[in-house]
Specification:
The chain is α+β, with helices and mostly antiparallel strands. The chain is built from 14 helices and 24 strands. The longest helix has 24 residues. It is globular.
Length: 670
């Protein structure tokens, strides 16, 4: 991968023969785990302006109708997370001269608070082409990372690194997007880029975007309006989309023994082979029929936006014995075909290295673009879950990708519950797919096995016989990270918000070294720890599984509101937690240590018990729930995995969901 500096440019065609479609990644880390930014893309004409409101893509308008641009959302990495954008350069309209890639923050947050700001571009096969790091960020609330632009018949990339103190509003104004402000002079005005004069909006239709909450409030006038303080609100879309109601219609059945007819029945499935065949056919058929799902599941793998057809059990020549991959996905665009072979496993069955290797070889010989593995396992760091060898002598590159059943269910739920699809029939199909995936007989339940090292490591910790350098503990750490990522997928799909694990390490750190250190700590203190963050909340949820006590602790720290009397802030906190479980532990935090603590049940009649006896003012509060992790000693989901998932679910809905007003008064950034 070629590294370039601010202001430099490079031809994409000179870096790859397969640069007709690229994946742009924007990444950053945060020392607190709370930092984040929203990505946006603007298509500009020769005059440097958008042609219409449809040329502005952001989280509420994530995809172009022609497939040229699609925001793929956040992807966890070993040391933070990154936003990815799929750009099909062959589909970009001829009158678009530049594609600007930017990011913005809200609520007073600045890019100087984030670390490792970086933009990378990979080709269709996933091969990294060029990278650019921003090292001079400070007070900016919006940044143009880079831009793709035409030069004759080729596309080039320029590292821009231009910041705006006026946030998304200032950036947007520069490109002809109208910003409508609140008339209240106390809010201030931020309609232009820092250091520039106001730019008049073109006479053509423009998109209205808000200034950040600290500067201006937007009035929604067009379909591309970005709502101010949009975090935590249900997304709106540029076109009317169909979602299904969360509450099912009243049943007409006489009693509970009547079973609803399902498009994809599963009770008769008895063997693993039956499960794999049916699961593959069900998923691929819905992907081909519902373009929103098909595009979402394949765009990150380099597939273009186009006409999709899917096939199952396709015989392909391989030596003396033909091989039959579980499925084949083909996408046609502009007379060109993109093809991926699919290998599926269900019911926790592992993928086989040798089998996937054969499909990689077949794909390379036949000129196919990708092999996609699909199983209950969750990939770490975006890496495959099987070990295959890539023949570097072959000119044609084949990409290997992994998809988990949990990710499929997450994307289906996001579409039918929160973001919407094109019509009611598609929404119903996705609902039937989700019902199938969630049925106990489908075998598509996501990650559900902590692996063979789990029982001996847990027993060694309980008996205090395990050594800090026991290699099996690293396998447990890997499984723990997979579990936390699956918990984030499930919770995020339910809430319609991004939920991501927090990694408090720098982007250049070695994931293997980090996991070895975590495994050593596990052997010493017997605890598995993780943190996760959900958009719409300013808090980081900590999850700790103590293998010695068999307890799972979920907790969150919230800051004390500034300028409040200690007893008043405690009473306000307890009122906000009126619906929280009575066994919630509440502890006051003081400068340099911890203060008094008690259960919510005991503190409600005596809120003063939470105040330090020496009169010190609390700097914040720690809220914790403690739950048994499950009595099952085996590897199955019924024990530890379900216990952790249930603990996080109970803590979010019982505690975190009620903290919005308290967090806002505390003045902490999200």
């Amino acid at each position: 991968m070629q590294e370039i500096s601010k202001g430099a440019n490079v031809s994409l065609n000179a870096l790859s023969e397969d640069a007709g479609a690229v994946v742009v990644s924007l990444g950053w880390t945060s020392a607190t785990g709370a930092g984040d930014a929203d990505v946006s893309v603007l298509l500009l004409d020769e005059n440097g302006k958008i042609r219409s409101e449809n040329d502005f893509y952001f989280y509420n308008h994530p995809a172009a109708a022609d497939g040229s641009v699609q925001l793929l959302g956040k992807t966890p990495t070993s040391d933070g997370d990154e936003d990815r954008i799929s750009v099909d350069l062959t589909a970009v309209p001829e009158d678009v001269a530049r594609i600007v890639v930017a990011a913005s923050q809200y609520g007073g947050a600045r890019f100087g608070d984030l670390d490792d700001l970086r933009m990378t571009i990979a080709d269709r096969s996933g091969e990294p082409l060029v990278g650019y790091s921003i090292e001079d960020a400070s007070v900016e609330t919006a940044f143009i990372f880079g831009e793709l632009y035409r030069r004759g018949e080729e596309w080039k990339f320029r590292a821009v690194g231009q910041g705006y103190e006026t946030g998304l509003a200032g950036l947007a104004t520069d490109f002809g997007i109208e910003v409508l402000e609140d008339a209240d002079p106390a809010t201030g005005a931020a309609t232009t880029a820092a250091g520039t004069e106001p730019t008049a909006a073109p006479e053509a239709s423009t998109a209205a975007v808000p200034a950040p909450a600290a500067t201006a409030t937007a009035t929604a006038t067009t379909s591309a309006t970005v709502p101010a303080q949009a975090r935590g609100r249900a997304p709106r879309t540029t076109r009317k989309k169909v979602t299904l109601p969360k509450v099912a219609r009243k049943s007409l059945a006489e009693n509970d023994s009547w079973r609803t007819a399902r498009l994809f029945p599963v009770p008769t499935l008895k063997s693993d082979k039956e499960r794999e065949v049916r699961a593959t056919s069900v998923l691929l058929s819905v992907m081909a029929e519902v373009p929103e799902l098909g595009r979402r599941l394949t765009a990150g793998f380099g597939a273009p936006a186009g006409r999709m057809q899917t096939f199952t059990e396709v015989p392909l020549p391989h030596g003396d014995t033909p091989r039959r991959p579980d499925g084949v996905i083909r996408v046609e665009r502009a007379g060109k075909l993109w093809t991926a072979l699919v290998e599926t496993k269900t019911h926790g069955n592992p993928l086989k290295d040798e089998q996937v290797q054969q499909y990689m070889d077949i794909a390379a010989r036949r000129g196919y673009e990708a092999v996609i593995t699909l199983s209950n396992d969750v990939a770490l760091d975006g890496s495959p879950v099987v070990d295959v060898k890539i023949d570097g002598r072959r000119k044609h590159k084949v990409s290997l990708w992994h998809l988990s059943w949990a990710e499929v269910a997450h994307q289906a739920q996001m579409l039918i519950r929160h973001e919407g699809v094109g019509n009611a029939a598609h929404a119903w199909l996705l609902q039937e797919l989700l019902e199938y995936l969630q049925h106990e007989n489908s075998g598509c339940h996501g990650f559900q096995n902590m692996g063979p090292a789990w029982v001996p490591v847990r027993k060694g910790i309980e008996d205090e016989t395990i050594s800090p350098d026991d290699g099996r503990a690293v396998d447990v750490i890997n499984s723990w990270e997979r579990l936390i990522r699956q918990v984030c997928l499930r919770l995020g799909g339910e809430l319609g918000q991004k939920a991501l694990p927090v990694q408090r390490t720098r982007r250049d750190s070695d994931p293997r070294a980090r996991r070895v250190a975590a495994a050593s700590a596990l052997c010493v203190d017997g605890r598995l720890s993780a943190e996760l963050r959900i958009d719409g909340t300013s808090s980081v949820i900590a999850v700790t599984a103590d293998l010695r006590t068999g307890k799972v602790r979920t907790s969150v720290d919230i800051p004390a509101p500034e300028g409040s009397y200690p007893l008043a802030m405690v009473k306000r906190l307890l009122r906000a937690l009126a619906e929280a479980p009575a066994d919630l532990h509440v502890q006051s935090l003081v400068e340099g240590g911890n203060g008094p603590r008690g259960t919510l049940e005991r503190l409600r009649p005596e809120p003063g018990d939470l105040l330090p006896k020496d009169g010190a003012a609390p700097t914040g509060f720690r809220l914790s729930l403690i739950k048994g992790m499950g009595s099952t000693r085996g590897n199955t989901e019924s024990g530890f995995i379900r216990g952790v998932d249930a603990a996080v679910d109970r803590f979010y809905h019982g505690v975190v969901a009620h903290l919005g007003a308290v967090e806002a008064r505390g003045g902490r950034r999200g």
